[in-house]
């Protein structure tokens, strides 16, 4: 029984791979560029691009369960090849699919359900890994610049998403479920920076940007107008699920969700 993990080199997929290997499963990791490396020993690496379904067909050979991302990497756009990927998966004999949503249910979720594949959607809210966007300014200036400092969210540790995905792919009782997932505490930006600062042993200054400045910064970084609207809209007025602690992680893993303090300790070197 081989489990295919797509997005395996990403924040979440990497953790899905790690967790499945730790639980003794045979894991095949999909990447568009195997030369980049970084996948752990013991994983079988497969090359394929979800946007080109035929390129993924060989990676599905002998696969019984699959973790599926729902975007194609191009500026956060939804994966438009969901129907073809779902058909290939069904044909290959895949009997369980977890889908990492892209912030709202989309065409991939619809396609997988339409194909009759037993699915579970993972609906994490804000990833703790988003804090990695702050590494440069923290390292060089001890500063974080963001808009909407008062916006609160219960960020989730990527390892918890990976652990829930692994259980969902390999245990019974999860089919047809939509798992809203958060971390254990609701924090605003200054509170997040205080926690990060404690892990680094230095104070981090917060400079609040106006919405206009934040939009400009994203434009300069090459974000599309749609992506800018999406991100700014989310931080200006996040969905209630993002600032309401969910019990999903604790219920499925039988232990509390990891804290941002733990994430900050684990990732401190990236900010030094
Ligand atoms: N950041 C958040 O707070 C948040 C919250 C909820 C949901 N999400 C969703 O989470 C997803 C991002 O997850 P992440 O942060 O783990 O990813 P990530 O670190 O941005 O990495 C992207 C992964 O997707 C793979 N990928 C992209 N396009 C691909 C394609 N066409 N074919 C095959 N593989 C492809 C990449 O693989 P290779 O480059 O190796 O091919 C890589 O492993 C997005 O859908 C986002 O909307 C994010």
Would you give an account of this structure?
The protein is an alpha/beta fold and 272 residues long. It has a domain at 2-117: 3-Layer(aba) Sandwich (Rossmann fold). Helix content is 38%, strand content 16%. It is built from eleven helices and nine strands. The protein has helices at 11-22, 53-56, 82-92, 107-114, 135-141, 158-170, 189-200, 211-220, 225-236, 248-253, 260-267, and strands at residues 2-5, 26-31, 44-47, 63-69, 96-100, 119-124, 143-146, 178-181, 205-208. It has a seven-stranded parallel sheet, sandwiched between helices. Helix 1 (11-22) links the parallel strand 1 (2-5) and strand 2 (26-31). Helix 1 (11-22) crosses helix 6 (158-170), helix 7 crosses helix 11 (260-267) and helix 8 (211-220) runs antiparallel to helix 9. Residues 6-13, 30-33, 49-51, 69-73, 76, 100-103, 124, 126-127, 130 line the site of NADP nicotinamide-adenine-dinucleotide phosphate. Residues 6-13, 30-33, 49-51, 69-73, 76, 100-103, 124, 126-127, 130 line the site of NADP nicotinamide-adenine-dinucleotide phosphate (NAP).
